[in-house]
Write the structure tokens for this entry.
Amino acid sequence: MTKQKLGTEFQMKKSKDPFEIAFVEQDESPSESPTGPDENEAQTPDPSTSATASNPVRTAGPTGKSKEEDEEEEEDNMDVELGKLPSSSDPDKTAIMQTILSQFTEKQMSRYESFRRSGFQKSNMKRLLTSITGSAKISMPMTIVVSGIAKMFVGELVETARIVMAERKESGPIRPCHMREAYRRLKLEGKIPKRSMPRLFR
Amino acid sequence: MFQKDLQHMMYGFGDDQNPLPETVALVEDIVVEYVTDLVYKAQDTASKRGKLLTEDFLFLIRKDVPKLNRCTELLSMNEELKQARKAFEVDEEKLATID
């Protein structure tokens, strides 16, 4: 059983497009997919879950952005990405998620794919953290945690900016004025850490 | 520094497929300032102990439940992957000895 889990994981490491591999897997054995999760549920990547989600992605194809380059860059992150199921140990939530994903339009799927796969480069984040702390000892878990926090923060910013735009009845790409208003609102909510001491150097 | 990543991230969270470069630059500034302030605050709590640990960040976001849950999820996934890679190396050694 360990070998099997490692086999699928190693396969994903080699491939450029894990969604593609997952799609191929599902193609070969669609009827076996329910048994797959039962064996591997407590462990890492679940190909069948991501396989059902990957079908629309295959047909959609890259949407203007150079996703292939990103996939190569994010190859290190891919194992972790696919392992992060929408609901790790709750079969009901997984089933609900699957039904939702199967009904996504192309646009929705591409946006969801961007949502799942995007992230800060570990190397960049590590460099930033080292420069802030001044010390060289930034552990990997710390980088992962800060990247996760930062990503969710970006999510809050963008969502608040969209709410601001809806209030102003504007559409199109988010403009800096919306973003500044969103930042101001998050500050009022207390989501932004503020320093009590004035910053001497900027 | 984070331009490319941020573009995909903002699209994933609801912005246009091609966010405005001014907006991306602004978000990058905001995020860098956010991370900086976060690290400073973590260092404040860590100074009593001496070393900066991951737990300091988790303590900082303890009030923000979604972020806390996400971070614990990320950390446990990282652990699982570490164990899996370790076991994989052990298997490789076994194969090497067989040959």
